[in-house]
Specification:
This protein has 394 residues and is an alpha+beta fold. It has 2 domains: 2-56 and 249-391, no CATH class; 88-218, no CATH class. Helix content is 59%, strand content 17%. The chain contains 16 helices and 9 strands. The longest helix is centred in the first third of the chain and has 42 residues, at 20-61.
């Protein structure tokens, strides 16, 4: 009986000579393969966006930001406390303010005050500066501006710009542009500028402040770092991860990835419906073979498993071809980037791709389950047929 099932399976899946059943078989395989490949490509793009955001926003805000809740003994004391915690590589104090920058027009800016030596230990400025900046310490009023803002206001390194300072009356303060930065996040490069922390306190707050602190880690994960900081600092400060600070953007991309997965699963489901057509044709063409096997004593369960197995084999072949095609598509898109993205809208001007094994595994499992489910209806139809009626006119 097992030999008979194997013979029937070979005749159904790999019939000799060309036939309509052969065409239907490869249409089913192609449909599943195309659905799997397209879903792989889309999820790879979404995973690439998540990885891109994590990399870029970690560079902007650092993996962890510590926000003191009250006076904590002064900047130098609190900074030393942070640096003494195991796993903390470096600490950089900073603060934020809002202003207007004037030069060939007006642009609103978020000013971040930094201390240069500390900041270099936390933020990889060498990758962010477009070219080497002028770090001359004798320049009292230096400013780094984003590439987007520099382009908007036609500003070049070495130009003098005016920053609007609020107080008893509005006034402007001249600053020399010593560097142009590009983080790769369009909105950030259009809005953020960097000046010396002490200068920011002097101009906008008129007193020393308890700053916020960016933290770089070594040898531990972000979650472990957060846990250690919370244990050591207790109620003195709030500890936040980069994903908490930018949670709206991060969650939006995650939700889009989940929605696209389920939407594109419909494409695989539509392709899987070809399996129903294939197996319905197979049950019609093989009704004589099935009837003989039923007459020889094959059980209902065996007939069902035979046709479900046929659909499963079609699914496995389609999934295998689809995974290979998806990898090729991802490689082609990665090498020959389509110029379809506006940096002003999507924050990137090329598609970031990242093929994740977890995504591929999930796609394969869902595709296989759909193929198996769609095999059940024809399998039940074949199993419920009566041998006498099938052989009556043979």
């Amino acid at each position: 009986m097992i030999h008979g099932l194997g013979f029937l399976m070979r005749r159904s899946l790999f019939p000799k000579g060309g036939s309509l059943l052969t065409l239907a078989l490869w249409i089913s395989v192609s449909g599943v393969a195309l659905g799997v490949a397209m879903l792989m490509l889309v999820l790879s793009v979404m995973s690439g966006f998540l990885d891109f955001l994590q990399t870029r926003y970690t560079e902007i805000t650092s993996p962890i930001v510590v926000i003191p809740k009250a006076e904590v003994g002064g900047q130098s004391t609190f900074k030393k406390t942070l640096e003494s915690i195991p796993g903390i590589k470096a600490v950089s104090p900073f603060h934020l303010s809002q202003s207007m920058l004037i030069k060939n027009g007006v642009g609103g800016v978020t000013l971040e005050g930094v201390t240069l030596e500390d900041s270099k230990k936390v933020t990889p400025w060498e990758k962010i500066w477009i070219d080497k900046p002028n770090l001359d310490p004798t320049i009292p009023n230096w400013i780094w501006i984003g590439k987007g803002l520099a382009t908007k206001l036609n500003i070049k390194k070495g130009d003098t710009v005016q920053l609007m300072v609020s107080g008893d009356q509005m006034r402007t303060e001249p600053f020399v542009v010593t560097g142009i930065t590009k983080f790769g996040i369009y909105e950030h490069d259009l809005r953020y500028s960097y000046i010396d922390l002490k200068k920011l306190e002097e101009l906008f707050y008129r007193r020393p402040l308890e700053p916020l602190y960016k933290v770089a880690l070594t040898g531990i994960s972000i979650d472990e770092g957060v846990q250690k900081l919370k244990e050591q600092l207790g109620e003195l400060a709030t500890v936040r991860k980069w994903s908490d600070i930018n949670q709206n953007i991060f969650r939006a991309v995650q939700h889009q990835k989940i929605m696209l997965f389920w939407v594109l699963d419909i494409v695989i489901a539509l392709a899987g419906m070809n399996v129903i057509n294939l197996l319905m044709m197979s049950t019609y063409q093989r009704k004589r073979d099935v009837a003989i096997l039923r007459a020889m004593g094959m059980r209902f369960k065996s007939i069902v498993l035979f046709f479900v197995g046929q659909g499963t084999v079609v699914g496995i072949i389609g999934i295998g071809v689809g995974v290979l095609l998806g990898l090729v598509l991802c490689e082609v898109v990665e090498r020959f980037q389509p110029a379809i993205l506006s940096e002003a809208i999507y924050n990137v001007n090329k598609l970031p791709l990242k093929v994740q094994a977890s995504d591929v595994s999930l796609i394969c499992v869902m595709a296989l389950l759909l193929c198996i489910v769609f095999s059940v209806i024809p399998a039940l139809k074949a199993a419920l047929s009566q041998p006498v009626q099938a052989l009556r006119y043979e």
